[in-house]
Structure formats: C-alpha cells, structure tokens
Amino acid sequence: MNKLFRSFGFAFKGLGYAFATQQNFRIHVFAAIIACGLGYFLHISADEWQWVMLCIMLMMVAELLNTAVEALVDLVSPGYNRLAGHVKDIGAAAVLIIAFFSLATGAIIFIPKILLLINAA
To answer: How far is the CA of 71 from the CAs of 8, 82, 91, in angstroms?
Structure first.
C-alpha cells in the first residue's frame, strides 16, 4: 500500500512540475476551468459533458507527454541537434492537433447555446 501512495506522489509531483514550468499547461488548465464553468452555466447535457471532459483529458495528457518528451530530448541532446528539434516539433504538432479538435468540439457545443442566450435577451 505504501508503494501505491508513493506512486501517486510521483504523479502529483509531475503535475506540479508541469504546472510550475510550462506556460502552455497553465493556459490549458485555465481553459479547462473556463470550459467547465461555461458548461455548468449553460446546463450542457451529459453527452456534451463527456465530449468536454474528453477534450480536457486529451489536452492535458498531450501537454504532459510533450513536456516529458522535451525534457528527455534536452537530457540526451543538450546542444543543438536538428533531429532533436524535429522530435520537439512533432510533439508540439500533436498538442496542436488536439487543441484544434478541442476548439472545434467546444464551438459545436457552446456556440449554439450562447446564441440562444443572446437571441433570448
């Protein structure tokens, strides 16, 4: 049981590191809080909540994996290396693709509800 608690500690330590050192991770956390607040305010359905939560999870995981890859690349290739740069760029591209997916999903869910509020006002 002690080993289990230690592994959770390492995971939270990783989250803390990412939050403390990665501006993009902090931006995604802030965006997740906004999305959850907006979902609550607009009374989105359970199905819509699942899509919002999926987007949040994908964004966070992608950002964490990208941070891990970047740290590993910096460890094994501290100087400039063209291939190391490609690895970092590909990781960033993965995050970008998920960000576009999340933005499109959020637009599909939230824009019609916001427009209804505007039209009702």
So the answer is: 21, 16, 12
First-residue to last-residue Cα distance in the chain: 56
Q: Give the distance, in angstroms, between the CA of residue 56 and the centroid of all CA atoms in the same chain.
A: 5
Query: Considering only CA atoms, which of 105, 114, 14 is closest in space to residue 66?
Result: 14
Euclidean distance between CA atoms 67 and 92, whole angstroms: 9
On whether the pTM is more than 0.70, the answer is: yes
Return the amino acid letter for 114.
I
* Residue entry with tokens 């995050």: 95
Longest dimension (CA), the chain: 59
Q: Per the structure block, which two tokens stand in for 121?
A: 């006002």
Per-residue pLDDT of 71-118, as tens digits, reads 999 999 999 999 999 999 999 999 999 999 999 999 999 999 999 999
3-state secondary structure of 112: helix
Structure tokens at 77: 């290739």
* Active-site residue list: 63
Angle, CA 58 vertex, CA 94 and CA 30 arms, to 5° = 100
